[in-house]
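Subject: sequence -> structure tokens, single chain

Hey, anyone have a minute? Need the predicted structure for the following. Not urgent.
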Amino acid sequence: MILRIYRYKNGLEAFREFLIHNGMRVTPEREAILEEVFAEHEHFDVEGLIMRLRQKGKRSSRASVYRTLALLVESSLVQEVFYKDGHMHYEHIYGHEHHCHLRCLGCNKTIAILDEALADVIEGLGMEYNFEVISGRLEIFGFCPNCRDKNQ
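Reply:
Had a minute. Here:
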């Protein structure tokens, strides 16, 4: 089930509804993971998330973190952003405008781009094809100025 997340006051409320609707339990561990995910406003990886949880005295197994992240992705509250250094990076998208990423193939630098024209294109495509857009991901690959200059 994809939630129409815009109707909820916050991510926690949306996640609780998602879990209940899918016959899953709302547990303190899942809520702690969600709260920590939403406390981070940058891209993050699982190892960094686990370290932040532990620093705050919240113990969650690696398996629980991976399972909860999968549920957060499925509920459209979090998205996978890119694969780097052998593991996936994520960002929470609930409450954020749609954006795309420019990703450097040289140094793996990722730049988030908020562009009104891009949002209009996405909305227009949805309307043109009678498609309700819930979320999406656009990644553009190339070389940042530093890497481009090094290669010339």
